[in-house]
Amino acid sequence: MPNLFTPFTLKGVTVRNRIAMSPMTMYRSVDGRMDDYHVSYLGARAAGGFGLIFPEQLAITPDGRTTVSCGGIYDESQLEGLARVCSLITELGGVPAIQLGHTGRKGSVVTPWEGGYMLPPEHPNGWQTVAPSAIAYGGDLPYTPKELTVEEIHELYAAYAQSARWAAEVGFKWLEMHYAHGYLGAEFFSPLANQRTDEYGGSLENRTRFHLEALDAVREVWPEEYPLTMRLGSDDLHPDGARFDDAVVAIGWMKEHGLDLADLSLGFNTDAMQSNPFNDPGFMVERANRVRREVGIPVAASWNLGRPEAADSVIKDELIDMVFLGRPALANPHWPVWTARELGYDNPFALVPEDWGWWLRNFRGHQPSIGLPEPTESVVAAAATTNETRGVRVDSDAGVSEAA
Ligand SMILES: Cc1cc2nc3c(=O)[nH]c(=O)nc-3n(C[C@H](O)[C@H](O)[C@H](O)COP(=O)(O)O)c2cc1C
C-alpha cells in the first residue's frame, strides 16, 4: 500500500514522494521571464521535500498570459531563467514540472491585488483576447474576445510544440497542459464559452478536438520517457456548462492520445456556479477517483488537501496517485517535512538536503526549539510504544528514509 512518501514512477520519471507543488501564478515576471525570485521560492520547495515542483502556468504566446507580469515560454529570452529553475530543483532532489497554458478570454487583466479586472485591448498593458467564441466572460472581464479561426487554432498547436521543445531543452521532466480554470482549454470544453458551429464546437467530440490535437502536437516533440499530463476543468457546476460525465469520456480519449495522468479541477467558466464546494476538504478527490477507476489512468487532485492526515489518506486509500498542493505550499516550504513529522514517519529530515538533515538529526539541543512544530501528542505516544529513539514512530511502510 503506498503512502504520501512512497516514490511514484510515471513513464521514465520517478518522483521521490506523492507531493507536488501545484502550479501557481506569481505575477512577478518581466517580459515573461523567471529570475532570482522564482529560482529562490521554487528551490526552497525542493529543499523542503516537495517531490514534483511546478512554477506557474507558463504561456505559450504573449497573449496567453493572464497579466503582463505573468511568465511565459514563447521567447528564447525566457529560457535562461527557466533553466536555472530546473537546475536548482533537480539538484535538490525534486522533479521540475511545467504547466503550459493560454488564458484565452480571461487574459489582459491586472493582478488580483490591483483588482483583477480586465484591461481593454487598447490599454498599454492589455491586449485583444481570443477564445473559441466571441463571448465575453462578463463581470470584471467585460471585453469580448475574438473568435479563433481554424488556422489560428492550428498556429496554437505549433506554439504548444515549440514551448514543449524548449521545456525539454531547459530541463523540465513532466509537462501538464492547462485545460482548466476558465482558460483556453476549459473554454473549448465548456458550452458556456464555446458555441462554435464548426468541428471545434457543439458535440462532446468537437469540444474535445482542441485538447486532443494539442496533445498530439506536444506528444510528437515531448520526450517519450517524460510524463505528459493535463489539468481539466471537468465541471462548471452549472447546468449549461461542462459536465463531469462528459469529462470522464473525454479523458478516455485523451488517454488514447498519449495522456499519462489526469489532474482534475473545475471549469471556472462562469461566476454563476450553482454549488459552492470551496469549504469542503478534498472536494475533487471523489471525481478524480472516478476517472482513475473508469478510465484506468493515474490521477492527481488539488483543493483543500493541506491537512497531513487528509493528504496521506487519499494516497493510502488509493483514491488518487498524487496530491497537488497550492496554498499549503505557499504557506510552508517545508510542508513535506512537517507532515512527515506530524504523521510519525521515520526520518523526516531525509527530505531536506543531507547537510541540513545531518544537523537537524544530530546536533544536541532542545527539540521544541528546532523551528518546526513538534509532532502532536498521539504521534509521541505511538513513538513511546515502538521504542523509537528520535521521538517519531518507525513506520516500515514509510518511503522517507536515509537513502531517500
Ligand atoms: C496564487 C495562486 C495562483 C494559482 N495559479 C494557478 C496556475 O497558474 N495554474 C493552475 O492550474 N492553478 C493555479 N492555482 C490553483 C492551484 O494550483 C490549486 O489548484 C488551488 O490553489 C487549490 O489547491 P489548494 O487548496 O491546495 O490551494 C493558483 C492558486 C493560487 C493560490
UniProtKB/TrEMBL annotation:
<dbReference type="Pfam" id="PF00724">
    <property type="entry name" value="Oxidored_FMN"/>
</dbReference>
<keyword id="KW-0521">NADP</keyword>
<keyword id="KW-0285">Flavoprotein</keyword>
<protein>
    <submittedName>
        <fullName>NADH:flavin oxidoreductase/NADH oxidase</fullName>
    </submittedName>
</protein>
<dbReference type="InterPro" id="IPR001155">
    <property type="entry name" value="OxRdtase_FMN_N"/>
</dbReference>
<keyword id="KW-0560">Oxidoreductase</keyword>
<dbReference type="GO" id="GO:0003959">
    <property type="term" value="F:NADPH dehydrogenase activity"/>
</dbReference>
<keyword id="KW-0288">FMN</keyword>
<feature type="domain" description="NADH:flavin oxidoreductase/NADH oxidase N-terminal">
    <location>
        <begin position="3"/>
        <end position="337"/>
    </location>
</feature>
<dbReference type="InterPro" id="IPR044152">
    <property type="entry name" value="YqjM-like"/>
</dbReference>
<dbReference type="GO" id="GO:0010181">
    <property type="term" value="F:FMN binding"/>
</dbReference>
<dbReference type="InterPro" id="IPR013785">
    <property type="entry name" value="Aldolase_TIM"/>
</dbReference>
<dbReference type="GO" id="GO:0050661">
    <property type="term" value="F:NADP binding"/>
</dbReference>
